[in-house]
Amino acid sequence: MFAGEVEFLKGVVAMSGLPPADRVEVCFAGRSNVGKSTLINALTGRKALARASNTPGRTQEVNYFTIGEACYLVDLPGYGFANAPVAVVAKWQALLKQYLQGRQTLRRAFVLVDHRHGVKQVDEEIMSLLDSAAVTFQCVLTKADKVKATDREKVLDQVRAALARHPAAYPEIVLTSSEKGDGIETLRSIVAGLS
Ligand code: GTP
Ligand code: MG
């Protein structure tokens, strides 16, 4: 499916701006700077489709991408620290939560967690929100190229323990590096299997 035409559809700033709920969608959530936009670029094989940057708070809208007619990929603003005015951040945080709780066609949320840092309190809050909304979420560890070999298992255990606390968590964790390409094909087949 990723061989099909991939396009940016629109950036949404309010629930009323969401495109018609006429197909399956999957979204990418996670703390600011965890690598959501970069992962979408890696999945679609397009370097600058989703705008990524080293400044936390880069993505400030709910960004829709189409893969042919098959499904929507949704790049979300991050949560946690962001290098943006407080009022602006508050606005996108509210939209993020409304979106995660209220989008009928949201088939799965991928919750991205930095493999170096593991699951933080803010991730737990989003996971709890997804539990209450009954949206299945799957944890994707990012930046695997940056994690020290000695920390790898320790962080994985911490993530597994966190997921075990959340009924909406899909048990399989996907390890990725957008930089090196690890796990990207696996994630592509997961997304393809959902649409
Ligand atoms: P916000 O939009 O601000 O919430 O951030 P984001 O989660 O979309 O992160 P983004 O994709 O913009 O990436 C943040 C930084 O992490 C960029 O400098 C990326 O190049 C870097 N990055 C993302 N994925 C990887 C990875 O797998 N490995 C390495 N080494 N760096 C990565
Ligand atoms: Mg982003």
Automatic annotation (TrEMBL):
UniProt keyword annotations, A-Z: Cell cycle, Cell division, GTP-binding, Magnesium, Metal-binding, Nucleotide-binding, Septation
CC annotations in GO: cytosol
Domain EngB-type G: 22-195
Superkingdom, taxonomy of origin: Bacteria
Pfam families the record matches: MMR_HSR1 (PF01926)
Family affiliation: Belongs to the TRAFAC class TrmE-Era-EngA-EngB-Septin-like GTPase superfamily. EngB GTPase family.
HAMAP family registered for this protein in UniProt: GTPase_EngB
Protein name: Probable GTP-binding protein EngB
UniProt keyword Manganese, yes or no: no
Role of this protein: Necessary for normal cell division and for the maintenance of normal septation.
Cofactor(s) listed in the protein's UniProt record: Mg(2+)
GO terms for MF: GTP binding; metal ion binding
Taxonomic classification: Bacteria, Pseudomonadati, Pseudomonadota, Alphaproteobacteria, Rhodobacterales
InterPro entries found in the cross-reference section: G_ENGB_dom (IPR030393), GTP-bd (IPR006073), GTP-bd_ribosome_bio_YsxC (IPR019987), P-loop_NTPase (IPR027417)
